[in-house]
Amino acid sequence: MELRLYNTLGRVKELFKPIKEGEAGVYTCGPTVYNYAHIGNLRTYITEDIFVRMLKLFGYKVKRVMNTTDVGHLVSDADTGEDKMEQSARREGKSAWEIAKFYTEAFFRDYKSLNCLMPDVLCPATEYIQEMIDLGLVLEGKGYTYSIAGDGLYFDTSKLPDYGKLAGKAHIDGIREGARIEANAGKRNPTDFAVWKFAAPEEKRQMEWASPWGRGFPGWHMECSAMAMKHLGETIDVHWGGEDHVAIHHTNEIAQSEGATGKPFSHYWMHARFLVVGESGKMSKSAGDFLTTSSVPERGYDPLAYRYYCLLTHYRKQLEFTWEGVEAAARGLDGLRALAARIKAEAAGQVTAADREAKYFKDFSAALADDINTPAALAVLWETLKDASIPAPQRLAFAVAAEEITALDLFKINEEQALPAELAALIKEREAARKAKDFKKSDELRKALSDKGVLIEDTSGGTKWKLTRG
Ligand code: AMP
Ligand code: ZN
Where do you find CATH 3.40.50.620 in the chain? Predict the structure, then answer.
């Protein structure tokens, strides 16, 4: 199936043509691990996960690389201010290394709770310092850099004729005109950025390394260029991130990589629009006012209800987060799982290869192939599972294949949904009898339920039940 992707570079949907037939090298910018990830960050990772799963469904051999930024991301995009890692270490009374370990683990716990597949290669920036220095040396050798005393080694963006092509000329001109030059008086151009920052002589940073330019640490953008090229080659197929990365981070990754190699860095640049919350719209990891993935189970929802909620909106549309939306998604997911459970019981496992040729398979795949249209793919899933005119084995085959993409634990049985209404009513009646201390009636009802295959257990947390036969 032909795959069309919206390429930020050029701003049109394009046919996906990988460098090597049947293979795809994908780089995704990972989190800055100085705090918990917020639900907005995870919207982007869920989107990227669907993308990778879709490539696999279409038969590509995928190699996906993700970094974790554990050094060098400064508080200000103008390459000034404190390193976010060191700032967080001070705030929490831990070392920067402890902060990186703690929040990297926290990130992947959240990530996995949303059924996102682990990347094939995971690169903490601090393990690639030498690769970044080597890249800096190539840039220096080609005359792209200059040094600002007491500050760092900078990339001169005026030396690259197509600098800013990802963000667009108007945008870059805007940065140039609106720039507050005094923020970093030594820069030749407002868009120039740090390749290597010098540690201040009086300051002993927790994370710093020797380099040909002096003791210090890499500029934030360096890591993604160095790691992507090391693991995926000088030109990669697809590079992903959130929309905030277009103007600065990805623009500068392109400048460094293409300056160094003279080749295109990535053929496709893909960006997820932001999730926004409330009136200000913004969640700020640095200001600490944000919702994390654990806010979802804390409110009593399955984390996958959040995944489902994200999939209901196309990744290139802004997602305005509301708890009402998550509530509706949770109910929708319960409904989908109940349908899947019924179909599984009916189908009794007879699935044939011919089932895969069915129209709904094609419609589902076509929706995904059209720039990852998850809302349209979910609509096909719902319509198909509900359509009683399609034999159950065929619907089951489809649900199993769709689960490979959606990863919503479709076959996780929500017991309450799976329980026939008559039995659910008996459980309720017994609970009421127990509350009213009518133990005779309560015992009779327990026996009646047991005869029908429902085992009742009274616990301190309330009445629990399970099916003794399926
Ligand atoms: P960071 O940890 O800030 O480096 O961001 C990790 C990823 O989340 C990057 O791909 C960002 O572009 C993305 N991101 C940041 N904020 C949001 C948001 N509100 N909605 C969606 N993605 C976001
Ligand atoms: Zn990056």
Answer: 19-293
**What residues have a C-beta under 5 A from ligand 2, the ion?**
29, 224
Neighbouring CB atoms inside 10 A of 460's CB total 4
The answer to whether the CB of 232 falls within 8 A of the CB of 65 is: yes
Looking at per-residue pLDDT, the higher value among 276 and 466 belongs to 276
Alpha helices (H) in 262-408, listed in sequence order: 295-298, 303-311, 323-347, 359-369, 374-386, 392-406
Task: Look up residue 261 and give its two tokens.
Answer: 């190699």
Beta bridge mates, 218:
196
Give the pLDDT of residue 431: 86
Pocket of ligand 1 (CB under 6 A): 29, 31-32, 40-41, 43-44, 69, 241-242, 244-245, 272, 274-275, 283, 285
Beta pairing, strands 61-68 & 121-124:
parallel
pTM of the entire predicted model = 0.87
> Quick one: fold of 19-293?
Rossmann fold (3.40.50)
Using alpha carbons only, give the angle 421, 426, 431 rounded to the nearest 5 degrees. Answer: 125
